[in-house]
Amino acid sequence: MSTLVIVESPTKAKTISRFLGSDFVVRSSYGHVCDLPKAELGIDVEHDFEPKYIIPTKARKNVTALKKDAAKADTVVLATDGDREGESISWHLVNALGLDKAKDKKLERIEFHEITEEAIVKALAHPRAIDTMLVDAQQARRVLDRLVGYTLSPILWKRFWRGLSAGRVQSVAVRLIVEREREIEAFTPQEYWSINATLATNARETILASLAARDGVALDKFAVPTQTDADTIVTELQDASWKVQSVERHQQTRMPHAAYTTSTLQQDASKRLHFSSKQTMTVAQQLYEAGFITYMRTDSVTLSEQSMAQAERFITDTYGKDYYERRKFKTKSKSAQEAHEAIRPTDAFRTPEQTASELTPQQTKLYDLIWRRFTASQMTKAVFDATAIDIDALPVGRQGASYGFHATGTTLRFDGFLKVMPTKFEEHQLPDCTEGQTLTLEALVPEQHFTKPPPRYNEASLVKTLEKEGIGRPSTYASIISTIVARRYVEKSRARQFSPTEAGILVNDFLVENFPDIVDVTFTSTMEDRLDEIARGEREWVPIIREFYEPFAKRLEQKTKEAKEAKETETEDTGLVCEKCGNAMVVKRGRFGKFIACSNFPACKNILKEKKEEEEPEKVGRSCTKCGSDLIYRTSRFGKFIACSNFPACRHTEKIKKDTDTPDDGKEKEGAPAEKEAA
Asked: Are 124 and 205 members of one domain?
């Protein structure tokens, strides 16, 4: 063996090995080979916050195998991802495998952003040293998160119950959701009315126009606040004369978006595919490792010259020259690395239709989204004809206000990038009208509206807010959201919206009151900027951690004592006596809500199980064909069904037929979904 190449995943190793000759052996590290211990803090706060890295048990066997492979190799090439985490894995591999002490070996670090033969060969020809600035930035983040998580969580246990946790970034995300929920609860709807007129031309073509002005003054949406006001206007306009005041026609264009970044991919996959952020990143990782797309953790919208040239050939060959427009996008994020690219297909000519047989359904959907967004970014803008008609309504034979109505219409003239990236829009063509033309009123309809509270966050809007506020980084959004759901701090509804749980609200309020910096959006964003400065070599990581930790540790000591005292004094008497030890039974809180337990805990662990009052089941009106008991309606996760009331002694079940409750054959079916649910 002459050259050993080490990457993170076996899939990536398999793909890369296809491009290299027999002189290369490609192995996987299976992710991180070193980490902080789980059973202790693992940070020496007295000696410059030195991390105490260990090789986890699950990684030891693979590390031993990698050592053997490295011993046989003349050159060891570290080919982990080019971001902070990938750089950190390479750095840990050097230490875990003893490569820094192997004087007889050549050690190289390579970086690439797409897994293609050309990219791999180019990277091997241009190796570099490990970027210690990226390693320091990743180490600072790991130390910071461990200091917060491992020290705050025990306080929450003392104050509330075991199993709770706090995180430097996750707690800020929970705060956003809690504060949005309180905005919704405090919201007071405001009533307002709109008035729409259906008007006809002499040619019997119709125009739908909305009230927009009174006596030449534009009206806002609250200008007609009540039904009385709306009815007054409708009455005034019953015998009005309607005349076209002006017609304006102009051209509108719509530009394509840049190719995806990590954030915009997560947002669009949530909206269009209903993928969670975690699901999106998992599938994108699979596509990257299989060589279909470029690296999926990026906040840059830059595209390589090669990829743009390839897009030009594909678009002109497939759709014609009229559809191609070379376009460069500028990355707005100050922390973005311009050397990295946006997420794009590695081959523009590999269309979604061509790859469908090679990919799973989920991979196909996400690849289709990425391919279309990239291709559209190099296409011409869409062109629309827009028409606006202003109409005067003048009451006849009476004194009253004059009213102005407004109608708009849009017609697509050239689809441009919409050819590959369809977007929802309503095409509404207005009839040809001329200034001064009279119209006939066909209908005048007032409609009641109420203002709506701000919507709850969904995955797309939460990711967008996290990015806007500088909380975390695109590569961390998926894990942030997964964590707060797994910790039961928030729940996701069927409409895919987040709402806080009781635990989430309790923990958030405690942290806001006692550790305001930890859940402060500005503080968290500033800390992310500091980490970026470390990555650029502008700051040292230890002073930044010390600046945070010293005041934090003092407050931690004070609040630990207060939390324990508060929990001991905060009890809710039930008037019940423990049947096991005779002490009072009190109301306590747990991760699943309130429950009644003995006040003498932990000496006495008696818990009173609440008996829920069950509703009387609805009877079918027939008897069970097996035992003669009443048949009742029951509901399972598979829907409503008929079952014997003598369950579990009798397990007879029947399906409900449409428009009748008669069973299809009166026969008990073994293993039917209803029976399994009942059991």
From this structure: no
In angstroms, the Cα distances linking 651 to 322, 619, 627 are 69, 16, 10
d(CA 65, CA 193): 73
Q: Can you give the pTM of this predicted structure?
A: 0.80
- Residue 657: give the domain boundaries: 619-678
**From CA 408, how far away is CA 386, in angstroms rounded?**
7
Residues 360 and 397 in one domain: no
Written as one letter, the residue type at 528 is E
The pairing of beta strand 593-598 with beta strand 607-608: antiparallel
Q: Is 295 a catalytic residue?
A: yes
- SS3 string, 249-267, reads EEEEEECCCCCECHHHHHH
Q: How many separate domains does the chain show? A: 5
CATH number of the domain bearing residue 368:
1.10.290.10
Whether the pLDDT of residue 243 is over 50: the answer is yes
Give the separation between CA 528 and CA 307, rounded to whole angstroms. 31
Tokens of 85: 């985490």
- Which candidate in 260, 295, 324, 367 is catalytic? 295
Residues 222 and 314 in one domain: no
Query: How do residues 278-326 score in pLDDT, each as one tens digit?
Result: 999 999 999 999 999 999 999 899 999 999 999 999 999 999 999 999 9
Token pair for 111: 């970086």
